[in-house]
Specification:
19 strands; 12 helices; 7-stranded mixed sheet; single chain; alpha/beta; about 25% strand
Length: about 350
């Protein structure tokens, strides 16, 4: 079958090969025919070594498709079912799951160290234990989440990561208060989803911050009340909050520099939500006095900060009701053979989300 493979960490191009085999099928496992997958910035981060991932590997973790085959003991799905790929499945038995913090379950991360694919030259891993830039993937049964028949594969793919992460940051982690002021730094697919979440919660002012003009324009269409470049953020802070700072600031870039900017633009007693996934060696510096004196809450948001399966269901309900726009997030569509064009679209900021149709 075909799959897009990164041979070594640090390479900026993927090679689409037709000699890749999905492996690992057996009890408790599911084979999925991938129909659509989104390109998330985390894929680029893994390719560049920002996020830890063994190579060679097939990127992609935001996918949807149909079940081809189920292993012994699998009862939740059957061949022919439509599913979204969940890259962070909950085991249901660990301390985090028992506390109701299923997004902190480590079971899914354990899959990342087991090869998902094989080529004549040896084993190939799947990013985040999945690897959806492939025609087929074999995953644990918990990774295959059934979706209703009326949810298109491209919409389902977005729900698998970016939309759940962004919406959840506003709805679950921050629990944005109606009438509040919000700033979102980084307005790709995840940031736009955070903007939609803040709008749903009734935020009075939502300032979108991004260096790319087209993304700023898109943010206004999705619910932002103002859109500014990073250089214009101080002026927006003064205009919207009289210089005090925003009630909520979402950092959706994953860098200490922007996290520091986000902290500085959060009002005293306000909330900084860290959504972007950053590097192990990128440290955010804060002094102990400001931590004490400003009393700002710093809330990391892992995969939307809530029960993933409930978040999927909520997102589908909101989409059906027309309360969130998911199709509008897909600004580009490419075939798997055009995957490197999609990477360029992500790097330049031209795309909110590119859908790879497989």
């Amino acid at each position: 079958m075909r799959a897009a493979v990164l041979h070594e960490i640090g390479q900026d191009k993927l090679e689409v090969l037709d000699d890749v085999e999905a492996v690992g099928f057996g009890p408790g496992r599911v084979r999925i025919r991938v129909r659509a997958t989104g390109l998330c910035h985390s894929d680029l981060s893994a390719m560049g070594g920002v996020l830890p991932q063994p190579a060679p590997f097939v990127p992609g973790h935001e996918g949807a498709g149909e079940v081809l085959e189920v292993g012994e003991g699998v009862t939740r799905v059957k061949p022919g079912d439509r599913v979204v790929v969940c890259w962070l499945p909950a085991c249901g038995a660990c301390p985090a799951c028992k506390r109701g913090q299923t997004q902190l379950c480590l079971a899914g991360f354990m899959n990342a160290g087991t090869p998902n694919f094989r080529r004549p030259g040896g084993d190939v891993f799947g990013f985040a234990g999945t690897g959806t830039f492939a025609e087929e993937v074999v995953v644990d049964a918990g990774c295959a989440v059934p979706i209703p028949d009326d949810v298109p594969f491209d919409i389902a793919a977005l729900i698998g990561c970016g939309v759940t992460t962004g919406l959840g940051a506003a709805l679950n982690t921050a629990d944005v208060e109606a009438g509040s002021s919000v700033a979102v730094i980084g307005c790709g697919g995840v940031g736009i989803s955070a903007i939609q979440g803040a709008r749903l919660k009734g935020a009075a002012e939502i300032v979108a911050v991004d260096p790319v003009a087209s993304r700023r324009e898109a943010a206004l269409a999705f619910g932002a009340t103002k859109a500014v470049s990073p250089d214009e953020l101080p002026g927006a802070k003064q205009l919207v909050t009289a210089g005090e700072g925003f009630d909520y600031v979402f950092e959706v870039v994953g860098r200490s520099a922007t996290a520091r900017i986000a902290y500085d633009n959060t009002r005293r007693g306000g909330t900084l939500v860290v959504v972007g996934a950053g590097a192990l060696d990128d440290f955010l510096q804060l002094n102990m006095f400001e931590l004490f004196f400003d009393e700002k809450r710093i809330l990391p948001s892992m995969y939307g900060g809530g029960d993933v399966l409930r978040s999927y269901e909520r997102t589908i309900a909101l989409w059906r009701a027309g309360r969130v726009d998911l199709s509008g997030l897909i600004t580009h569509r490419v075939a798997l053979t055009e995957i490197n064009e999609a990477l360029d679209q992500m790097r330049t900021g031209a795309a909110l989300r590119t859908c790879i149709e497989i």
